[in-house]
C-alpha cells in the first residue's frame, strides 16, 4: 500500500472539493441542419470579439404550468387572481446560486469577473470574449454563415458546457441560433442583413391572409353569409349582442409586423359600408422598435393582414379602442420576442438576446434603421392580444421555443389572453412545406411528415383554427372546417409535451377517432401538445384593402374575431368589478364550458399529400373545441370569480 505524504492528500482533497469544475463537457444545443437559405462558409478569425450572452436558467420553471393553471382553471380557488409583473419577475428570476455558478465558471475559465455584466432583469450574463476564448469555453468552432442575399451571421453547429453547468444555463448566444452579431461588424466582409423570408411581416413569409381575387358586392344581407362574411354575419353566427361599457379600462391589442400596415382610408371605406358610426376611428398605435404603419408600399400583400385585423376587431368591439402593437422598423422587421419585450421586458438585452434569424435587433445598425433603444417594457400587456402570424416550429430551436413559450405563460399569469392563428396550410407548414424523416423541410413527396406551427404548439397560447359556412348554408346551420382557399392549421407539436388541460380531450380524439397515420406522420403518442384550441370563421371575409373590397380567407381572420369575443366578455366582467379572463385554455376545455361551443364535425385540414385530420365530435386537431357561442360563454364567465 502506498502512503501519500500529507501534502499530496491535501491536493487530492482539494481536487475532490473542486470536482464539479472538472465535470465533462456535454452538448447543450445542436442544430440538425442549416436554416433554410443559410449555408456555412468559413471559419471566423480567433481574435474577433463576440458579444456573448449566457441566458440563465430561471427559477421555478417546473411550476410554471401549475402556477398558470392555478389562476386560469375555472375550478381553482385562485381563478382570476392574476399576478403582478413584479411577482412574476421575482418568482422566476434565476436563483443567486445560478447567478454565482455561471459567474464563477466563467471566471475560472479565464473570463475575469470584471469583464462580466449581469443584465438588469438578472437573466443574462454578458461578456465580450474572443472567438478563441469562446471556442475553448464551449468546445466548438465558430463559422460564418451566408444567406443568398449577401447577409452574414456568426455561429456554430453545436456547443458544449460542463455537465454541472447544465442546470444553470438555458441558452447561450451567439451559437446555434445564428444570432451572429459581433462587437465590430466591420470585421465581417459584408453588412449583416436579414433574409427577407425570415421576417414575419415579409410578403414572402407565408403569413398574411389569402384572397381568391373575387371582388365582393357590398350590398349584402344575412342570406349572403355563405359567400360574403361581414360583421353582421359573425354576430349572427356567434350570438353576439353586446355593446361595450368599460372601454376606458378594457384593452385589446392587435400585433402587426412591419412592413405589414393598415391604411386609414381602407378602415373608413369598410366602416362606411358596414359600421357607419366608426368612420374616422383610428387604432391607438404603439410603436415597438421603430414600428411604423408605412404607406410607401401598398397593396394586398402589404395591407391585407392589418386592414383585415383592424376592420373586424374595431367593428366587432365598437366602441372599444384597439391598441395596434406595430412591431419592427422598415429595415429589419421583427419577431415574436420583440413584441414580448415591449410588454414584459424579459428578452431585452443591450445588444440583442433575441433571435435575429427571426427578431429584429435594436438599435438597428443598418441604414434607415430604428436608432432608439430597444422597446423594453414600454406598455402593460393588453387584456387580449391577437397575433395572425406564425412560423414553422422546426425553424426555431427547442430551447428558444421553450424560453419564448414560458413568456406567454407569464403574461397569461398576469391576466392576458394571447391568441395566435393556427396557420393556413392544414397539416403542412408555410409554403406547404413538410418534414423529412431526418427533420429537414421539403415539399411533398420528399416531405411527408406533418409540419406543426409555432407559437401555436406552445401550450401557453390559445391557437385559433378556421371554419366556413359551406355553400348554400346559412348562419343558423353548423359550420365546417375551412376548405376554401386555405385549410386550418392543426396537429401535434414536436417540441412541447401535452398540457394537463387538454389531456382528456386529446386522448378522447385519438381513441375514438384514430387518424389513419402512423408515428411517421405525427407524434401520435398522446403525450405532445395538440392544436388548435378553438376556431372561428375564416372564409369569405369582405375586407377593404388598398381602396377596394377583397374576399379574404385565413386563420388570420379567425384570430381577431375570437379576440373580439373575448374582449367583449372582459368588458362585461370589468363592468361588474371582476378581472379579465386571462389564459382561457383551461376554461374552454373544461366540462363546464363544453356546451358553450358549437362543435364542428365536418371538413378536414389536408396537407403533406394527405387528407390531414378530420373534424369530428369533440375536440379535433382541425377546429379544436369548436366555435364560440358568445352568449353562453358570457353567462359562464360572469359566474366565475
Ligand atoms: C462589449 O463591447 C461593446 C462594444 O465595445 C460595449 O459597448 C459593451 O459594453 C461591452 N460589453 C461588456 C459586457 O463589456
Ligand atoms: C434529409 O433527407 C432529405 C430527403 O430524404 C435528403 O435530401 C437530405 O439530404 C437529408 N439531409 C441530411 C442532413 O441527412
Ligand atoms: C347552391 O345553390 C345554387 C342555386 O340553387 C346551385 O346552383 C349550387 O349548385 C348549390 N351549391 C351547392 C354546393 O350545393
Ligand atoms: C412525442 O412527444 C413526447 C412529448 O413531447 C415526447 O416525449 C416523445 O419523444 C415524442 N415521440 C416521438 C417519436 O418523437
Please, could you describe this protein's structure?
This protein has 641 residues and is an alpha+beta fold. The protein has two domains: 20-58 and 93-173, no CATH class; 189-515 and 524-639, Peptidase S8/S53 domain (Rossmann fold). The protein contains 14 helices and 28 strands. The longest helix is centred in the C-terminal third of the chain and has 21 residues, at 555-575. One 2-acetamido-2-deoxy-beta-D-glucopyranose (NAG) is lined by residues 33, 436, 438, 440, 442, 446.
List the helices and strands and how they pair.
Blueprint: H1 6-17, E1 25-30, E2 38-43, E3 49-56, H2 64-72, H3 85-92, H4 96-108, E4 116-118, E5 124-130, H5 131-138, E6 143-147, E7 152-155, E8 158-162, E9 169-173, E10 210-211, H6 231-237, E11 252-257, H7 264-274, E12 284-288, H8 300-317, E13 323-327, H9 336-344, E14 384-387, E15 391-392, H10 398-413, E16 417-421, E17 434-435, E18 441-442, E19 453-454, E20 462-468, E21 480-481, E22 491-497, H11 503-512, E23 528-531, E24 534-537, E25 541-545, E26 548-553, H12 555-575, H13 585-588, E27 597-598, E28 627-628, H14 630-639
Parallel strand pairs: 11-13, 11-14, 12-13, 14-16, 16-20, 20-24
Antiparallel strand pairs: 1-8, 2-6, 3-5, 3-9, 4-5, 6-7, 10-26, 15-19, 17-18, 20-21, 22-23, 25-26, 27-28
Helix pairs in contact: 2-10, 7-8, 8-12, 9-10, 12-14
Residues 33, 436, 438, 440, 442, 446 line the site of one 2-acetamido-2-deoxy-beta-D-glucopyranose (NAG).
